Amino acid sequence: MRIASVPSGHVYVRHLSDPDRADGVVRLPDPPIPGAPPGQWWPHPMLEARWVREHAASFDVFHLHFGYEHRSRDQLRALLVALRQAAKPLVVTVHDLRNPHQHDPGPHAAALDVLVPEADAVLTLTPGAARAIATRWGRVATVVPHPHVVDAALLGRPRPRHRGFVVGLHAKSVRANADPVPVARVLATAVADLPGAVLRVDAHDDDRGRAVAAALPGIDVRVHPEFSDDELWAYLSGLDLAVLPYRFGTHSGWLEACHDLGTAVAAPDCGFYAEQAPCLSFGHDEHRLDEASLAAAVRIAHATRPGRRATPESRAAQRREVAATHARIYRSVLSARPGVPR
Known about the structure:
Blueprint: E1 2-6, H1 11-14, E2 26-27, H2 49-55, E3 61-64, H3 73-85, E4 90-94, H4 106-118, E5 121-124, H5 127-137, E6 142-143, E7 165-170, H6 180-192, E8 197-204, H7 207-215, E9 221-224, H8 229-237, E10 241-243, H9 253-261, E11 264-268, E12 280-282, H10 291-304, H11 312-335
Parallel strand pairs: 1-2, 1-3, 3-4, 4-5, 5-6, 7-8, 7-10, 8-9, 10-11, 11-12
């Protein structure tokens, strides 16, 4: 089965395949983007109705994951029309009920209102997200867990030893759903009362990252270019607790990477982070930061060291299950191939 996957090169999608054997699924590579650096898959050409019409003979199923925030409702409707005219099923994985890169929830909500009702199959990552999809659109979403993020060869690598207890907060480039400064201030106070505990804050070397450093005098803020994958795994492995400073969102690949590496996570109670993997929770959304629960999460992590790590065996078994589920869904939608636009 040939899958037009949007995207194909993202680590999440790469890890949907069976790690041990061919699973009968071939995902088309992301088309090159003129003028873009190697590896960049956005803006994705497959989202153009014209691409579907011109390449309909090259794929069997169209699977949309993410990367459509630049598409209008009319453009997405045109994509659906092209798929129906070509008799190509549409599978949608709802990674985000709220786009973490957009301050205004309206555009993403409007896109989902176009896509989810018309999809031939809907998937998502957690039971909570599936319940939200059922409530909002009346669709039954198949829950497929997030596969590992870290390369399989690194899953069993011993964690490096270090002294003390390192709490880390990475502001990255302060995307729309992140509110790192007030979270960092609470963390600084919390670690000050814990023996051997230190706080490390990282931010990307751009205007927003440097603004985080300027707002946190007296706190160890490290401003630097974006980590390579190897640098990121080393950074996460050097933390005892990673704190996610999100005030809205749904799921997190960062959390999965921490689970791969054995780094404990404190995640906000917005979204469905706690359903992805074992983690500590604290109160945080667009309206409030519960400072007491955040400080309590740090104290619990310091006392219990709850870095429950995914094993290579469990992640391999999960990938086999994830691959089999996707292959089954693709076969199902192909057996009920749609006709002309509805």
